[in-house]
Amino acid sequence: MSDFSIKCEPVADAPLPVPTEPPKEPTFTLPPEVPVLEAVDGVRFDFNHGLRVRFPGTGEYRCVFRDLDTDCLLYSMDVKPGCMVESVKKFFIRFGLEIYRKDDLKEPLFRHDLNLAGKEVLIQLPVGALGDTIAWFSFVERFQKKHNCKLFCSMMKEIADLFREQYPDIAFITKEEAGKLKPYATYNLGLFFNGDTNCQPFDFRQTGLHRTAGKILGIEDLSDIPPRVNLTAERKIKEKYAVIAAQASSQCKYWNNPSGWREVVAYLKSQGYRVLCVDRMTEYGTDYVWNHIPYGAENFTGDLPLQERIDLIKSADMFLGLSSGLSWLAWCCRVPVVLISGFTDPVNEFETPYRVQNATVCHGCWNDTRCDFNHFDFLWCPRKKEARDKFECTKAITPKMVIDQIRKIQEKNHAD
Questions:
Q1: Residue among 71, 113, 132, 317 flagged as catalytic
Q2: Of 217, 250, 277, which residue sits at a domain end?
Q3: For the purposes of burial, counting CB atoms within 10 Å of the CB of 125, is it exposed (0-12), middle (13-18) or buried (19 or more)?
């Protein structure tokens, strides 16, 4: 038998890596360093990052976590002085906390069951995600009504301004303001990648973009409910018109059929519609791949207030877009939405009878748990590596498929 040995270099001699970039700011405001609530004997606890319990520097205790709804024992351990104990799961669980003296396990020294009624609760949504925030927000309201809590919601100010008057029972705050709170409980809404099931109970790729928020917050009713926005503005354009949005944050979201938008815009104009493009940018891309405003569309692009976008979209005969933020905004406007997507499966977005997808070719990689999205690859296409094969999912969505959905809307509008 041959010898086997491992040689290790002295760790002390190895130079420490020098950071090349400043540390990134965390997506969510961190919880208070010290748990907010006092239990007994200097023990403190709260529910601001799951269930957190901090023990004082003296005395030894037994700490027990329970899931009250499933009647499952989650944790039961003796803890040493000065320890901090946190639950692994950070999504909504109706926790029960029991603290015993280590030498007396007959009766708990302290017991507390999570109860949000009348308590200050913080729900945090990431800044910068228009579609995600709109998709998740109805579950925020459902959570507040279910628990009758004093709810603070941290989100991007531009979107909060749309919701503030519509939801008087929710206090909208900035990320900076959230850092000054000392709430009873905190829940973070987001897409947690790479199969994470600690911040979300189920992989969001299986539950869908909007319903994952309901799962995180423990909401039973996962039905599609668009958030309320102000739809009272008078119509500004006399002629009939359609609104389109052709840009996205990643190439897999685009309609990659080379003649798609051109033929659809031409069809709409042949039917007497003005076609207004409301993307933030007229062109977007990277390196050698750039996407331009569709030929023949009127340029209504620009970094404009979202309420102005709503005022324009709400009076349109229809909206045509991708699996991106402006399609979710159009959903709020209660107009027919033609949603063109290949990289997502229908479970991912709100229900629309005018969804366009070609299921006979490669599709649905976003919702495939075998495919992990790369945020840094604008040309991400996990199943097709050759340039000529990439984005087959939307290359194979023909103009006819989209025009057929437009005709359905025309027929319905004519019947009404």
A1: 132
A2: 217
A3: buried
Same domain, yes or no, for 345 and 394? Answer: yes
In order, the DSSP letters of 353-389 are TTEE--TTSS--GGG-TT----TT-TT--TT--STTT
Residues 261 and 331 in one domain: yes
Residue 410 φ then ψ, to 5°: -60, -45
Instruction: Identify whether 132 is a catalytic site residue.
Output: yes
Same domain, 362 and 253: yes
The pair of structure tokens assigned to 137 is 């927000």
Cβ neighbours for 405, distance < 8 A, ≥ 6 positions apart: 338, 354, 355, 356
CA distance 369 to 348: 13
Q: What is the pLDDT of residues 325-375, one digit of tens each?
A: 999 999 999 999 999 999 999 999 999 999 999 999 999 999 999 999 999
What's at 272, amino acid-wise? G
Whether 130 has a pLDDT exceeding 80, the answer reads yes
* Cβ partners under 8 Å of residue 41, min gap 6: 56, 59, 109
Helical ranges in 259-368 per DSSP H: 260-270, 306-313, 325-332
